[in-house]
Amino acid sequence: MDAPRPGAIPFTYWTVSDNHAEPTEGGVIEEALLTIYVNGQELATAAQYGANLIVVVVDNGAYGTIRMHQEREYPGRVSATTLVNPDFAMLGAAYGGWSAKVETTAQFIAALTEAKERTGLRLIHVRTDLERIAASGATISALRARAKA
User: How far is CA 93 from CA 43, 52, 89, 119, 130, in A?
Assistant: First the structure.
């Protein structure tokens, strides 16, 4: 499995292994950060009902796709896309789950491996660099340079 990549709207999202599928296989659901902020009680509900799930929060500290469009159309004029996010690993632990915070692909692989060896609520908070704004490889620096050309 590849490490999470940037490009979601916003960049942070949840991945959930659904324990209502076959007992040995889980489905995968991805939801945007907006869902976490509007419906953050999903972790509480998962903990309350003993859901067996893995949550991966990929966090670049911004509404990534919106920021990418801002940089393309108005280079350097950032408006209302920067986020001050909580420590999602601590949030997962506050709900009684296992959690980890990672910043590299190697750390992510190790955390995902450990998470798969456990059951119940498991949350991995992946911090990424905003510079690499899209899975396509687009960077903020390149968008700004292209606009000046």
Answer: 10, 15, 6, 14, 26
Q: Which domains are delineated in the chain?
A: 13-148 (3.40.50.970)
Closest CA to 85 of 62, 107, 106: 62
CA gap 123, 127 in Å, rounded: 13
Residues 146/76, Cβ–Cβ less than 8 Å: no
Q: What backbone torsions phi and psi does residue 83 show, to the nearest 5 degrees?
A: -115, 145
pLDDT tens digit sequence for 78-117:
898 888 888 999 999 999 999 999 999 899 899 999 998 9
* Burial environment of residue 84 by CB neighbours within 10 A (0 to 12, 13 to 18, 19 or more): exposed
pTM, whole model, 2 decimals?
0.73
Q: What's the number of CA atoms in the CB half-sphere (13 Å) around residue 145?
A: 5
Q: Say which amino acid occupies 83.
A: L
How far apart are alpha carbons 97 and 95 in whole angstroms?
6
3-class DSSP string for 79-138: CCCECCCCCHHHHHHHCCCEEEEECCHHHHHHHHHHHHCCCCEEEEEEECCCCECCCCCC
